Amino acid sequence: MTLSMNTPDFLIERNRERCINCQVCVRQCANEAHGWDAEEEKIFSQDALCVNCHRCVTMCPTHSLSIRKFPLEFRENANWTASTMKAIYKQAETGGILLTGMGTDRPYPVYWDQLLLNASQVTNPSIDPLREPMELKTFLGRKPEQLRVINGKLAEALPPQLELDLPIMFSAMSFGSISLNVAKSLAQAAETLGTFYNTGEGGLHEDLYKYGKNTIVQVASGRFGVHSEYLNAGAAIEIKIGQGAKPGIGGHLPGEKVGVEVSRTRMIPEQSDAISPAPHHDIYSIEDLTQLIFSLKEATNYEKPVIVKIAAVHNVSAIASGIARAGADIIAIDGFRGGTGAAPLRTRDSVGIPIELALAAVDSRLREEGIRNQVSLVVGGSIRNSTDIIKAIALGADAVYVASSALLALGCHMCQKCYTGKCNWGIATQRPELVKRLNPEIGAERATNLLKAWEHEVKEILGGMGINAIESLCGNRLMLRGIGLSDRELNILGVLAAGE
Amino acid sequence: MIVLNAKGLYYRELNSKIREEIATGSQDIVVKNVNGQRYIGDGITGKARLTLKGTPGNDMAAFMNGLELFVEGNTQDSIGNTMNNGKIVVHGSSGDTVGYAMRGGEIYIRGNGGYRVGIHMKEYQETIPAIVLGGKAGDFLGEYMAGGVIVVLGLDLEESEEIVGSYCGTGMHGGVMYIRGEVDGYKLGKEVKVVALTEKDHEQINRYVKDYVGYFGGSYEDILAKPFSKLIPYNKRPYGNLYCGW
Hints:
The complex is a heterodimer.
Chain A: E1 10-14, H1 24-28, E2 34-37, E3 42-45, H2 55-59, E4 65-69, H3 82-94, E5 97-100, E6 115-117, E7 138-140, E8 149-150, E9 153-154, E10 162-164, E11 168-170, H4 180-193, E12 197-198, E13 215-219, H5 228-233, E14 236-240, E15 251-253, H6 260-266, E16 274-276, H7 286-299, E17 306-311, H8 316-326, E18 330-334, E19 343-344, H9 345-350, H10 355-368, E20 376-380, H11 386-395, E21 399-402, H12 404-410, H13 432-435, H14 440-464, E22 480-482, H15 487-493, E23 496-497
Parallel strand pairs in A: 11-21, 12-13, 13-14, 14-17, 17-18, 18-20, 20-21, 22-23
Antiparallel strand pairs in A: 1-4, 2-3, 5-19, 6-22, 7-10, 8-9, 15-16
Helix pairs in contact in A: 4-14, 7-8, 8-10, 11-14, 12-14
Chain B: E1 2-5, H1 11-23, E2 28-35, E3 49-55, E4 65-72, E5 85-90, E6 106-109, E7 130-133, E8 146-152, E9 174-180, E10 192-195, H2 199-216, H3 220-225, E11 228-233, E12 243-245
Parallel strand pairs in B: 1-2, 2-3, 3-4, 4-5, 5-6, 6-7, 7-8, 8-9
Antiparallel strand pairs in B: 9-11, 10-11
């Protein structure tokens, strides 16, 4: 065996004066970073196994643990940074593709943080949402060119719409990548909030059918768990073409995460990899996409809107135009900072474009072509707070998708090890002893709290702008100003510079 | 028996008529003059038998759940797409991606299948879908196959024709393929291997061949006289060693 050059990423520090040897940390760590030495009668820790998820730190009754970055410095080098070098050591040792989880952690510009919002002063009054009604209700779906009203009634039925009480939905995460308790938490929260969660491509567990009216069912290239009952169980169907964290590639749910329940829901053998090919093998063109959209509409009697989800890539506006013309009711665009349960590191960190630019480009293009009414736009890919949402809607989105934020609400600490199946917070795991750490009732409450808090903040800021309905903000880019952006970026975003 | 005439009907109209018939309890429906209409049988749950005279369009029997479709003609692409249960019997040949992600039921095709037949078929416990081709299959047969059975008989092939194309079983991680005769090694995906047949395999093959002969005629004994090759994946996790954790 050759010498491993991998050094620990983190240093576990234990205050021995505080530690009472209760072994909670030993029991809590699925990575086995803590152990009990029966002979010495004391706890030992292995830094190399620590992923810095803070489970032990949070659970330690005497606060005796802290985790730090491992204080090992290479000779300073601006080109060959520590992470660049460590990646080479790992690949030289294994010959493997570097695999990671969650969204990119590279310091790319976050355009949300370079957009500023407007507020009313003197000439138009601001509105106090605590005293006046503020409408966040949002309808997603194809809007007709015109409405004909006969005797006070619509002459033709509207195309199917999703009705949201607030413009925030939980985006796709499959049962398999996440635990059933996460799915239950988000489904319950979606029901309480009057919005939707998304099954991802892992099928629908039998316990979740009761949340059907708040469910978006996904159809992806692996077609896991897709059958007519599933298609009809939800309020809408999403065709997943791409994901922001890994545009252009498929996914492999590792066999470690395919236990009895996942196996039954996905209809594949236990412990086998669940492989989602990169493309849908019945879609090689916009015409083929039309075929699948209408195949799904036929299967559900034209009663459900069909969403097509793509990753934000270079030609996203032309692609979106094609999707609108293909017959989709809603386009979901996932920016390159979006999360994932597993993605190759190099793809996650280098493929795709930021959601802010993609959204602005798509909205502008659809308007120019006069087809913006044919689709609703939903964007995701790292929506971190309520102002990200307001800015997204002002740039042209009808609603947003959140997933990483929702997982953080449930206890995720962004350790990026979702692909190992050893999530100590019971989120990205299928191991029963870990899954049970997340109580779905508490999870639902925390996710609901987060979105309720954001709802209040959105109303507050909307009121400050003198706007009392979220629809009036959609595509209202005059409410935005850019700061520290180039002319070119301002042009793509379609916003003026601060001060203009 | 109910007879519908598909002549000049757009698919949406035709399919809605078929749905109405099934909803009213018709068990035996014949559709004449089928000419490229898509999505026949799409997403329908039931036990009815449909006889389609002509050439149905793409995505026939997609998401279908229990119907029996007998096609007197050829079929186009993606028949039995993500089909859950039921039966398709085609008295001709079929286009590409037959039985994509098929979850249950059986597809019998008298002639050939195109590219990517049986891609990503699945199975769970006793629910095992099957595709039986009388002729040959194109490239990527059983690609990403996660379960199910594919039988290719290679009957009546010209000298220049080969029973399967290239990349047979690429990415396969479950299920089994029975190919009548030998398959050149270079045609196999690197995730698949040829193994000896067991008694149980012979029983399975006999059953599918018997049904094939029942639908389309031919000699059961002659077909079985030539030995079959059995293809299975090396393991359930073809890409398990592809990665290293960051």
